[in-house]
Design goal:
The protein is α+β, with helices and mostly antiparallel strands and 267 residues long. It contains six helices and 14 strands. 26% of the residues lie in helices and 27% in strands.
Length: 267
């Protein structure tokens, strides 16, 4: 992470835990380098200097056993939700179209996963979760969610889908008994693995990813309400065993009796 003079940035850490449940203690250290590009330090300009390592106070953490999967049914493109979502998601609405290109400007060109990461990060950094009025289930279209600066879970999912569809991506929305989140298609086999490597490169670290799999390939979870990076676990999802590989969680839904997947159509 590079922080310019006078700038502030948030940093997030993701690290593995011991394999055995129990109480543990951990400590974080951080090493800093300073670039004297402005010449304000008593060193030659345009060179990096070791500014030492900072050690932060230790913290206690309790490692829990793996969770258990819910017993749930699956359905696909139930007409009520399919029509409702696709009537509201308009990828080529001018406001959505312009916002998508504004967000992805640093990674302009043909559709690529860096653009999707930038959209995810924009939602995570700039939107706020807003609960529906009591006893009401209010859905806001993506333009409304964008203008008001937030919404609840289905509003996040539809806005993400609209923005990603606008730049050429393919998305799907999953709905559980108490949550909704988007996924983005990343292909299968070598193509999917290369995309996951590119996400690692975007965030500058090695991550574990949550995917849904079907005959078409992998659908990468995109839930800013559940994770701080594209591909993290969604709300209501949890690890249910050791990782499937060096990149993929073994995970499942743990708090629902039904899961409905809705394809978002680019129209």
């Amino acid at each position: 992470m590079i922080i310019k003079r006078g700038e502030e940035k948030d940093a997030y850490l993701s690290f593995g835990s011991p394999p055995t449940p129990g109480n543990y203690r951990y400590q974080i250290s951080s090493s800093f380098m300073v670039d004297n590009v402005a010449g304000h330090l008593p060193f030659p300009e345009n060179r990096w200097y070791d500014n030492g390592t900072a050690y932060f106070s230790g913290n206690d953490v309790k490692i829990m056993p793996y969770n258990s999967s819910s017993s749930y049914s699956l359905s696909k493109n139930y007409y009520y939700y399919f029509d409702r979502i696709n009537d509201m998601v308009e990828p080529f609405d001018l406001t959505i179209f312009q916002k998508a290109r504004e967000i992805t400007l640093p990674f302009s060109g043909n559709y690529n996963i860096f653009q999707v990461c930038a959209i995810f990060d924009y939602l995570f950094d700039n939107l706020n979760y807003m609960e529906d009025p009591e006893d009401k289930d209010v859905w806001s279209d993506p333009v409304t969610t964008l203008k008001r600066g937030g919404g609840d879970c289905e509003d996040y999912a539809m806005l993400f889908s609209a923005l990603v569809s606008s730049i050429g991506g393919t998305t799907r929305i999953y709905m559980t008994d108490n949550h909704a989140f988007a996924t983005v298609y990343i292909g299968k086999g070598v193509q999917a693995n290369e995309i996951l490597d590119e996400i690692d490169a975007y965030y500058g670290t090695n991550l574990y990813f949550a995917v849904m799999e079907d005959d078409f390939g992998y659908w990468l979870v995109a839930d800013p309400l559940g994770s701080f990076y594209l591909g993290g676990l969604p709300v209501g999802g949890d690890a249910v065993g050791p990782p499937l590989s060096s990149t993929l969680y073994k995970w499942d839904f743990t708090e629902t009796g039904h899961v409905n997947s809705i394809d978002v159509m680019r129209k």
